[in-house]
């Protein structure tokens, strides 16, 4: 994780000695195909593996060679071979080719002896028998230094690879194995370095810089249609790709440039000159054909058009036209959202990564035509990024993996301008802050609770087996367990029907599942539904008796205030239905819910508000639906109180809700309890009898501890010594001792930090590792070079400075999951929040 730096620095894109080799572009008769994966390819990513294997002739016939050169170990090659075998390839037909110019640390043999193999006929003969080649990840320079000779000419092995590729073989690779695919190979650097206009063609390192210039080398050139970059979303590489494309792409009218997300592949069919997207992320398409040269007050990365493609979308590489999945709907003229988004300024920005931010805040939002973000160093020197709708801008929306939002976007304009951002401590910044008038309900002594909870943070994927399995297994362990689904939060029955289908797919009998008539809404998709009649049902003895026969109840997502309205009486007393739910829960039933169905679980229910808005403005007594869901001051109501151990918030990572959870927990929480922010596609499993919480699912849970917090009565929203922990699947919390247990597959990072570099502040959508947990994990906890890192959130000249610190109690934990994906947890990082005044010039 060392940073590379050149001796050159300027405000515009600088010249370098790199040039595309003559004749590199233009092979017209390539019959083979490419599978270019953006890194961190999950072993369970069937779509990408199937694409590679099918194009190699199918599992029964494919003969595949793996080139290990990029890695320092043979482990990744052996694991990729094991994955191919898992997907049906004959192990005898998969060989790790002896191609490397360095030794591997995990073998007894000295692989440096393989150096001459690239010019041996034996190696050439091996390659010519293959239907496919795969390049594993690591350092792309190790691939090119192995397959080019000292004069940057192809070795015999590379000529053989080209030969089988031209005749029909598939070439694939991940991470470094993707970077080598284009003629212009981006070898290092970051977005801040790219926008500063700094490029280098030398491998130099300087961990004392907060940014790295873009390091350009010659790639292998298999992809003939533009520049490729990888780890794109996770490492926020738009700035470096756009800058490289402006400078180095020689065919801007013909070629796009492509940023491929992790666990995602761009699949290229050279015969039809088309490409499609497969996997779990997306591909950012950068069009620099309209970018203008740099001049005074004009940055060269301007008038750049961005498009975002999702799995199932396709590109015609000849016409540059896009085709979107047929089940997606246009958003233009039918925008779902109507709210005024805040600028994307740091870890407290809702939808703070690039694609979600532009999807929700700009393209599918009728209330704005442009949004802004920033990228700067710790001195505030950097850039403002303006993203604008154009006449050609459109969005395409659908669901994926159940009811997760899935967006594609075309033709958003990006302009970059240099700025200087300065921050000044301002204890009076939030003098108009309004405390909450919400009265915390008195604690009822419910006695011993034998039941359990499965509390999901929203956007629960239908394929998220660990969450579904937890919910089903906790239904008293019965094979004939009876399940009830409460649809009240939603405006239709579609989410309830989808959840029912998911339960059936995971083995629950259809006749044992019932959608319960608890709602305050008239559902358009159920003409017979009359909410006024369903309102009466909740207080009938007959319905209460039906509830008491259930072993599990699930609350679907939507608007949490509709759930509480449906189950409390007008005087806030419990309906008979709610009392019955409490009765079965106490006796051993499992209760679960997602999104709104998670929000209702604690006594203090977070029903609305944004993070910066709540820290700056405080709370409101009124609720206005979407506006309150997407931002504004915090809004609290009484929840159902099934979770007895603190306050819960949901959609925590995607909607960046740390600020509102802290403000709520400080005003209305019990300081002796922890508070919990649950990420999307993730659940907390609460085992009441054991007084234990376990994390399951694909993201994490942020735990907020205010037991040692210090505040300043003269400075609203100034906090010191907030303790933050981030837990992932397999981790747990002891609710009696508040101690954490971390999954055994992880090792402590303390004293063994992987990184050693200076980290720039989290400043917006182009900050690497953009979610809260990842920003702290990579840049602070697993980084020897920093004792603290910062982020800012601001609007109209006022905001907060967030300082995340390591102390003696801080520890990080790292392992791999689903193949070679980094899997982090950390405990007891410390957060200080300081109100500030902000100037941008």
UniProtKB/TrEMBL annotation:
GO molecular function: peptidyl-dipeptidase activity; serine-type peptidase activity
Record's keyword annotation contains Hydrolase: yes
Alphabetic keyword roster: Hydrolase, Protease, Serine protease, Signal
Keyword Hydrolase: yes
Reaction(s) catalysed (UniProt annotation): [L-4-(L-arginin-2-N-yl)aspartate](n) + H2O = [L-4-(L-arginin-2-N-yl)aspartate](n-1) + L-4-(L-arginin-2-N-yl)aspartate
InterPro entries tied to this protein: Class_I_gatase-like, Peptidase_S51, Peptidase_S51_cyanophycinase
The enzyme's E.C. designation: 3.4.15.6
Domain of life from the UniProt record: Bacteria
Pfam families per the UniProt record, alphabetical: Peptidase_S51 (PF03575)
CDD domains (UniProt xref): GAT1_cyanophycinase
GO biological process, one term: proteolysis
Signal peptide: 1-24
Function, as annotated: Exopeptidase that catalyzes the hydrolytic cleavage of multi-L-arginyl-poly-L-aspartic acid (cyanophycin; a water-insoluble reserve polymer) into aspartate-arginine dipeptides.
Family matches, as PANTHER family: CYANOPHYCINASE (PTHR36175)
Family under the similarity heading: Belongs to the peptidase S51 family.
Protein known as: Cyanophycinase
Organism listed in the record: Metabacillus indicus
């Amino acid at each position: 994780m060392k940073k590379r730096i050149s001796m050159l620095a300027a405000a515009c894109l600088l010249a370098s000695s790199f040039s595309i080799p003559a004749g590199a572009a233009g092979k017209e008769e390539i019959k083979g195909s490419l599978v270019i994966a953006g890194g961190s390819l999950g072993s369970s990513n069937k779509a990408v593996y199937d694409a590679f294997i099918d194009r190699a002739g199918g599992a029964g016939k494919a003969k595949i060679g793996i080139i290990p050169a990029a890695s320092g170990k043979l482990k990744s090659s052996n694991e990729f071979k094991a994955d191919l075998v898992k997907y049906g390839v004959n192990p005898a037909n998969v060989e790790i080719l002896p191609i490397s110019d360095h030794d591997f640390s995990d073998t007894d043999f000295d692989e440096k002896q393989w150096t001459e193999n690239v010019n041996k006929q034996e190696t050439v003969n091996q390659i010519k028998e293959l239907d496919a080649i795969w390049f594993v990840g690591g350092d792309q320079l190790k691939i090119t230094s192995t397959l080019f000779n000292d004069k940057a000419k192809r070795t015999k092995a590379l000529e053989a690879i080209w030969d089988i590729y031209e005749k029909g073989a598939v070439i694939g690779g991940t991470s470094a194995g993707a970077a080598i695919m284009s003629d212009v190979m981006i070898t290092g650097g970051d977005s801040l370095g790219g926008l500063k206009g700094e490029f280098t063609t030398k491998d130099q390192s300087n961990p004392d810089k907060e940014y790295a210039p873009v390091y350009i080398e010659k790639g292998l050139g298999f992809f003939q249609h533009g520049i490729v970059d990888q780890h794109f979303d996770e490492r926020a590489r738009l700035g470096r790709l756009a800058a490289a494309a402006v400078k180095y792409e020689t065919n801007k009218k013909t070629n796009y440039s492509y940023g491929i997300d992790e666990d995602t592949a761009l699949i290229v069919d050279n015969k039809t000159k088309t490409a499609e997207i497969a996997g779990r992320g997306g591909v950012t398409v950068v069009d620099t054909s309209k970018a203008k040269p740099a001049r005074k007050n004009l940055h060269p990365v301007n008038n750049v058009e961005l498009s975002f493609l999702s799995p199932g979308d396709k590109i015609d590489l000849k016409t540059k036209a896009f085709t979107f999945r047929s089940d997606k709907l246009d958003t233009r003229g039918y925008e779902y959202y109507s709210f005024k988004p805040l600028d994307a300024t740091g870890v407290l920005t809702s939808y703070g990564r690039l694609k979600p931010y532009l999807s929700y805040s700009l393209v599918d939002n009728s209330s704005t035509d442009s949004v802004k973000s920033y990228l700067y160093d710790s001195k505030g020197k950097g850039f403002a990024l303006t993203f604008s709708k154009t006449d050609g801008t459109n969005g395409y929306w659908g669901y994926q993996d159940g009811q997760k939002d899935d967006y594609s976007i075309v033709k958003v304009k990006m302009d970059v301008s240099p700025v200087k951002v300065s921050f000044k401590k301002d204890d009076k910044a939030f003098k108009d802050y309004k405390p909450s008038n919400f009265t915390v309900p008195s604690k009822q002594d419910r006695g011993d609770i034998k039941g359990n909870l499965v509390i999901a943070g929203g956007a629960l994927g239908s394929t998220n087996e660990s969450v579904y399995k937890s919910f089903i297994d906790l239904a008293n362990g019965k094979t004939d367990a009876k399940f009830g689904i409460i649809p009240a939060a939603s405006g239709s029955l579609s989410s309830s029907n989808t959840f029912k289908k998911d339960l059936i797919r995971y083995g629950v009998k259809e006749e044992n599942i019932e959608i319960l008539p608890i709602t305050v809404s008239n559902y358009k998709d159920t003409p017979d539904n009359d909410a006024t009649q369903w309102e009466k049902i909740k207080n009938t003895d007959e319905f209460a008796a039906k509830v008491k026969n259930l072993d599990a109840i699930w609350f679907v997502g939507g608007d949490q205030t509709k759930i509480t309205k449906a189950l409390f009486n007008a005087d806030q007393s419990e309906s008979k239905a709610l009392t019955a739910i409490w009765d079965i829960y106490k006796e051993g039933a499992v209760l679960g819910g997602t999104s709104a169905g998670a929000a209702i679980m604690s006594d203090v229910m977070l029903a609305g508000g944004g993070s910066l808005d709540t820290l700056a403005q405080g709370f409101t007594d009124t609720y206005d639906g979407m506006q309150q869901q997407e931002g504004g001051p915090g809004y609290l109501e009484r929840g159902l109180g099934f979770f007895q151990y603190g306050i819960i918030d949901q959609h925590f990572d995607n909607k960046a809700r740390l600020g509102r959870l802290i403000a709520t927990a400080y005003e209305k929480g019990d300081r002796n309890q922890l508070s919990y922010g649950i990420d999307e596609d993730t659940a907390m499993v609460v085992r009441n009898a054991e007084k234990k919480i376990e994390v399951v699912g694909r993201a994490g849970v942020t735990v907020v501890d205010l037991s040692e917090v210090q505040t300043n009565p003269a400075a609203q929203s100034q906090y010191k010594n907030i303790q933050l922990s981030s837990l992932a699947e397999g981790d747990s919390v002891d609710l009696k001792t508040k101690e954490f247990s971390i999954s055994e597959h992880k090792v402590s990072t303390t004293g063994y930090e992987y990184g050693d570099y200076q980290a720039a502040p989290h400043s917006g959508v182009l900050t690497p590792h953009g979610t809260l947990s990842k920003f702290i994990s990579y840049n602070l906890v697993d980084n020897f070079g920093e004792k603290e890192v910062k982020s800012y959130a601001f609007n109209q000249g006022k905001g907060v400075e967030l300082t995340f610190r390591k102390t003696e109690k801080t520890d990080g934990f790292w392992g791999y999951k689903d193949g070679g994906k980094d899997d982090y947890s950390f405990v007891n990082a410390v957060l200080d929040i300081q109100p500030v005044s902000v100037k941008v010039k």
